[in-house]
Amino acid sequence: RRRAARLPRAARSAIIARLPALPRLRPGAVAAMLTWIVAGLAMFVCYLHVARTAVVTSDGASNALQAWDMLHHNPLLRGWQLSDVSFYTTELPQYMLIEKLRGLTPDVVHIASAMTYTLLMLLAALLAKGRATGPDAIVRCLIAAGIMAAPQIGNGVYVLMGSPDHAGSAAPVLAVFVLLDRAPRRWYVPIAAGLLLAWALVADGIVLFTGVLPVVLVGLARAYQIAFRDRLRWRRAWFELALAAAALLAIWLAATALRLISAHGGFVVWPVSNALASTSDLPHYLTVTGRGLLLLFGANFFGHSAGFVAALAVLHLAGLGLAAWGCGAAARRFGRADLAVQLLVAGIAITLAAYLFGTRADDLPSTRDITAVLPFSAALAGRLLASRLATARLLPALALVAVGYLISLGRVASQPTAPEPGTQLASWLAAHQLDYGLAGYWDANITTLETAGRVRLRSVLATGDQVTGDYWEVRSDWYDPMDNDATFIVLMPSPPGFARYPTIASVRNTFGQPTRIYYLGSFTILVWNRNLLASLGPGIPLLAKTPALTPPVAPIPAPAGG
Fold this sequence. Notes:
Layout lengths: L8 H10 L8 H25 L6 H14 L8 E2 L9 H12 L4 H23 L4 H14 L7 H7 L8 H13 L5 H16 L3 H23 L8 H26 L18 H15 L11 H8 L1 H16 L6 H19 L15 H19 L3 H19 L9 H9 L4 E4 L1 H10 L5 E8 L2 E4 L4 E2 L12 E4 L12 H8 L4 E5 L2 E5 L35
Parallel strand pairs: 2-3, 2-6
Antiparallel strand pairs: 1-5, 3-4, 6-8, 7-8
Helix pairs in contact: 2-5, 3-4, 3-19, 4-5, 5-6, 5-8, 5-16, 6-16, 8-9, 8-15, 9-11, 10-11, 10-15, 12-15, 14-16, 15-16
């Protein structure tokens, strides 16, 4: 066009007439885009208040410290020994961006959690919408978002928004499902889906169950249906076979990426146990799974007194019922369903089966392993049930239920901000000029985060009658006596479910008699006039089945309504 401007008018008009027309945004598309943006911003503000009702623990603090390290010239996290989940390609870049703007503070965890949960709701609503338009599209989106609207105060907020722990890993999987739902059958679509799955799998191995295996199995099932049931040529199934192959290749790509990072001195991820449940454990695991599903959908009324709070929890059974109805409808028509529906129902089934028949369903906090079930089933309910509910004239009743959900959400969002657990200890240590010391896992990284690194506590374990370094969410050079000088240790009673907290006996047996002892609430601070790191052995996991082989379990705060 710029070149044509220098030509005579007749020639210029002829050339411009042959140029392709520039795409124009329709007013309806612009309005829809603005609606999604405004809704997303409103939900983020609301869920930021919700996230701040949960206490930041050392799990979230560890991720914040890792992102800060990446932001300060350690992109491969050299020397870091992580948990069984790295979050390296998902939450850690998000934390880096927030820390760049906000600095190193516990609120980084809250901001990231609110962003992640908002994204999950938007993706679930987008997947529920599909290609529908008009009122049907609106109802679909509202059903999906409504089911997820009000996380249950206390335990529900902790599991879904307490810190990075599998909930955010559902976001890239949902993005893959949206891509496969909307994109045409082109050669580049399976490649893009495979790369997205590999990217997510580097961050969290649970994507194998929520995303990779569903794509593989659904792709192969659809290819089989095309070739054998419909009796068409195999080449008609090239797209489905390419999807399955790309998902399988994602496993190799993720494993290769992790090996290359480790080979170049980067972080090391703790391997996940692949043990299966015993038959004697299954009744307990079934109970935990059932209660976990109630918790995810905000309907965990057990332990409440009869009253308003219990009534709100019981009201959330409507969302769980819609999700179960949607899953059942999808399972019944699985062979005739579209690709997105098949992927969602397969993801739910595989995730629940892996959880139930593994060894992780031992307590309510482990519900974090099945958080993907919430957005998956919400998307299914919105996608499959909107027209049925409208036909049955149940939308007015559903609107009344939605009012109850909004009341529940308002109640959660209006709760006071949870006090940070390390504030009192951090202030006391800073006032006494104690800036580098040792502590149990749940007091170490969170105190370091509370002070933005001005007071640094490093996690230690009790191994028999000796105190050793930790091996979980730590950096190896923290324990190097040539670089650091630790002169004190902070002790507190061992939290439930974690038996390797240092005790007075193990500390004195390892370091000898302290020079000074202070008492601060439940904390005991022992101080020496020498570097304790010189007497500290390396952290080694126990070989027996103990909590040391699994992520430490934080005691979950349970305020009223939790």
